[in-house]
Amino acid sequence: MVVTSRIISRITSRITRTQLITVAALLFFFSLLSQAAVLPEDRADALYHRYEGGGVVIDGPSILVRKSFKDTISVSANYYVDNVSSASIDVVTTASAYTEKRTEGSIGVDYLRDKTTLSMNYTNSTENDYRASTASFNFSQDFFGDLTTVSAGYSQGWDVVTKRGDANFSKQVKRRQYRMGLSQIITRNSLIGMTWETISDEGFLNNPYRSVRYLDPTSSLGYAYQSELYPGTRTSDAFAVRGMYYLSYRAAIKAEARIFVDTWGVEAKNFELTYTHPLKKSWIFDIKLRHYQQTKADFYNDLFTRIDAQNFLARDKELSTYSDDSISFGVSFDKEVEWGPVDRFSLNFAVDYIQFDYKDFRDLRVQTTPGQEPLYNFDAIVTRMFFSIWY
Amino acid sequence: MTQKTLIRRLMILLSFSILAGCSSIEPWVKPYERQNLADPITFFGRDPVADNYMHHVHQARESARGAEGGSGGGCGCN
Known about the structure:
The complex is a heterodimer. In chain A, 8% of the residues lie in helices and 64% in strands. Chain A is built from 3 helices and 18 strands. Chain A has a 16-stranded antiparallel barrel with strand order 1-2-3-4-5-6-7-8-9-12-13-14-15-16-17-18. A two-stranded antiparallel ribbon of chain A has the order 10-11. The longest helix of chain A is centred in the first third of the chain and has 15 residues, at 17-31. The model of chain A is unreliable at 1-5 and 27-36 (pLDDT under 50). The longest helix of chain B has 17 residues, at 3-19. The radius of gyration of chain B is 17 Å and the shape is flat. Mean pLDDT of chain B is 79; it is low at 71-78. The interface between A and B is large, with 90 and 58 residues.
């Protein structure tokens, strides 16, 4: 009993009172329900992905296969590879270009009973200096004449951070994610969805290779470097709203807005607008606009005034103040066939053009008075090509 | 109102919206009226393999994380 109360005390000390009330309300609510839902479709996808921008090229395959059994269980497996070739702004100014490979595998199972779906997923990711494992549990329930879907989930991750050239360097990170969502049909042509997720990280959260710079009159450049140092914990909350409207001539408009805040002082928001237009029976075209912006972390600075200027130090451009804008175009050819067990296939191509614009991260490839270098910006092209079959 | 306060209020709104389902309001869109919502062009995340990849692209280059959404919709027709 004492052990049990200690365990409960340890768990509850890590989540807020609001989260506990929400989870309790959801559990009570789910206990009142029992009706039917639908498992994901049986399909297999083979994707080639490529990201190129800011001196970085990352490409590789992703294979996703899903199969259901007896209309109650659906299993899925995903194999994903990132082949990284990096000469990013960080690398060219403080290190040497490198190549590496990240491999990720995941398996999942969905169990359907009446209108309730329980899902479990396990993912393992490996690269030469980082290993990550994540276990997820999700619950979703359709009710109210199938007009409403409620979902909730929890994930836990265990990461191990190592460092090339330092065999004794090994640090751990523990991650926890809590989420819930609501999807609601509004009319015969529209629906809306809301999602909330809080994520808590604990452990070694900075990059073991990255440095911050500080003013140093004794250096020929006018500045010198020291290792960055992040807090050992980070908790974030994100809330997203999505809506879809079906247009009378068979097309769809989707919109999304998300806001984000974390304990490091970063506040972010993004907006998306997608238009989907089918042509004849087999073609589908998508065009999407997306805007993202964020404020910097409290402990970020492009140029500190001295060495050890404060307790925590960061010069990661992803923790600076910046925005990015993207435009995406996609086309799919989708056709029903009779190829043995295969009854449908699709060929797909999509490309995103993204512009990153940093407000307080400077381009150190230009040598001038420290703090007067031009602000950094770059463009990226993200490509997806994939083939899908349904069976 | 700070962004943190806004997220908390929205979370409470989400909780009440979920609990509102316990009321006795009749579903106003009948199953035979949902053919448009069953059309794949309406799905959020029509292709999970590509959507998962794009979430990864954004997560790797932006500080914001979570609430990325997923596949399917509310019509039980995915």
